[in-house]
């Protein structure tokens, strides 16, 4: 059982704990309704200070669907529990809330995956035994639908897991794969190499360890996932705690733009080392884990067909969460060109963040317009690039600073090619398909429309 305590640090690291074998309960306040304003600071990335109940449901469902996706469709199960039912006198309001949730998420998640029932709308302050029994029964019923329910595991798995627990109790938080192989060899019936990999993936899916079968990550296993959160805290918590480990200039740059030098993050991780590795690769491995979990984004940069190691990265949770309430008009939208990348399913926010990070390797932020979910960049003297996202789309608009002019056609064409090539590389990380649609009313740049509604992936 994991309690995130409602703090910003934990909102940025949820994916560390989300697994395909989890059963998720989302608890929300019925009395507020779906459009009710939730008064809380910093909790929901990408929205202005007026965040609504439906925004929180959307955030959590998007996170679970993105990072807990498994091999089986309609899983993992998400159970919605509404509280404060006693505050609602009109049953039509209950129906309105239920219909609103179904309408909002019908195209994003199957009805069998989202468990929405009237008997789970409750008065939490006066719960009867019948209500408690209903909640327990629903949890058990939905849990039993998992193919893994009642799964048997080899006794040697249990023996090896106990050895890993002993290492964890000795504060050996990160261990080399060779150490686990040695422990395995000491068992009465050792696991074969392929069985050992299945065992580690099983522990990962159960949320016990972090193990990724990826280049540069597969040779180490994190026995306590909480260490990743503690590592993130070392450079995103309040300033007075961080500055003792962080260069003032770099810290301020990160707080202002979310962008920071890779070398500085490695330095902070090394200064506040949370685990020891014999080959002194702790900082590099922890950085790799954070990138894998989308806690940190690095740009996708290629030079002559070869991937280039970036010298900076983006820390999305440090981007400004307060988007201006009044839309700012930096260019004439009637003369602008817009490319929309859309998906039929929930779009992982990390795709947008990685795209923004890659664009930052080429262009600068314009007049501080850098928010979580909305970014404006400047190209040359006159061109602006506005990038924003919602739950299913990335919308990129090209404009000219001088409102009477249209953006240059050749520049727009080059930008379109860059964006599509970059997104194509990013999509290789995620199992998401995107379409691109181009809209503009300029006859000067009609050639940009030749592949409207093209498949990017």
From TrEMBL:
- The portions of this protein that span the membrane are none
> What's this protein's name?
COR domain-containing protein
Could you tell me which PANTHER family the record lists for this protein?
C-TERMINAL OF ROC (COR) DOMAIN-CONTAINING PROTEIN, PROTEIN TORNADO 1
Span of domain COR:
154-295
Q: Does the keyword Repeat apply?
A: yes
Q: Keywords on this record?
A: Repeat
The record's Pfam families line, in alphabetical order, gives: COR-A
Task: Give the species this sequence originates from.
Answer: Pinctada imbricata
């Amino acid at each position: 059982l994991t309690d995130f305590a409602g703090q910003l640090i934990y909102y940025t690291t949820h994916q560390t704990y989300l697994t395909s074998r989890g059963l998720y309960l989302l608890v929300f306040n019925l009395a507020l309704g779906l459009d009710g304003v939730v008064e809380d600071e910093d909790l929901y990335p990408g929205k202005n200070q007026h965040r609504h109940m439906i925004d929180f449901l959307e955030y959590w469902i998007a996170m679970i669907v993105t990072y807990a996706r498994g091999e089986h469709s309609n899983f993992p199960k998400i159970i919605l529990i509404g509280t404060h039912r006693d505050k609602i006198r009109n049953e039509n309001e209950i129906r309105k809330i239920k219909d609103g949730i179904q309408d909002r998420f019908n195209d994003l998640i199957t009805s069998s995956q989202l468990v929405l029932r009237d008997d789970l709308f409750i008065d939490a302050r006066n719960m009867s035994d019948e209500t408690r029994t209903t909640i327990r029964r629903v949890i058990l019923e939905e849990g039993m639908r998992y193919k893994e329910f009642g799964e048997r595991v080899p006794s040697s798995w249990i023996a090896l897991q106990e050895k890993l627990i002993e290492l964890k109790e000795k504060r050996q938080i990160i261990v080399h794969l060779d150490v686990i192989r040695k422990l395995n060899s000491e068992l009465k019936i050792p696991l074969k190499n392929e069985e050992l990999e299945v065992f580690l993936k099983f522990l990962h899916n159960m949320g016990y360890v972090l193990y990724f079968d990826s280049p540069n990550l597969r040779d180490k296993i994190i026995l306590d996932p909480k260490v990743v959160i503690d590592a993130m805290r070392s450079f995103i918590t309040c300033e007075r705690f961080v500055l003792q480990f962080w260069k003032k200039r770099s810290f301020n740059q990160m707080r202002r733009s979310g962008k920071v030098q890779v070398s500085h993050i490695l330095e902070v991780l090394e200064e506040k080392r949370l685990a020891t590795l014999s080959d002194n690769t702790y900082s590099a491995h922890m950085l790799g884990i954070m990138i894998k979990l989308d806690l940190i984004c690095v740009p996708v940069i290629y030079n002559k067909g070869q991937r280039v190691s970036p010298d900076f990265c983006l820390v999305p949770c440090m981007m400004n969460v307060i988007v201006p309430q009044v839309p700012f008009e930096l260019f004439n939208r009637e003369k602008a060109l817009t490319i929309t990348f859309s998906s039929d399913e929930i779009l992982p926010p990390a795709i947008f963040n990685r795209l923004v990070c890659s664009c930052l390797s080429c262009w600068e932020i314009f007049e501080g317009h850098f928010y979580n979910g909305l970014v404006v960049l400047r190209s040359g003297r006159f061109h602006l690039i506005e990038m924003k996202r919602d739950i299913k789309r990335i919308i990129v608009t090209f404009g000219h600073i001088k409102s009477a002019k249209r953006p240059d056609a050749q520049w727009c064409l080059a930008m379109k090619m860059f964006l599509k090539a970059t997104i194509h590389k990013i999509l290789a990380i995620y199992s998401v398909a995107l379409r691109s649609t181009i809209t503009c009313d300029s006859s000067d740049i009609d050639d940009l429309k030749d592949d409207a509604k093209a498949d990017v992936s």
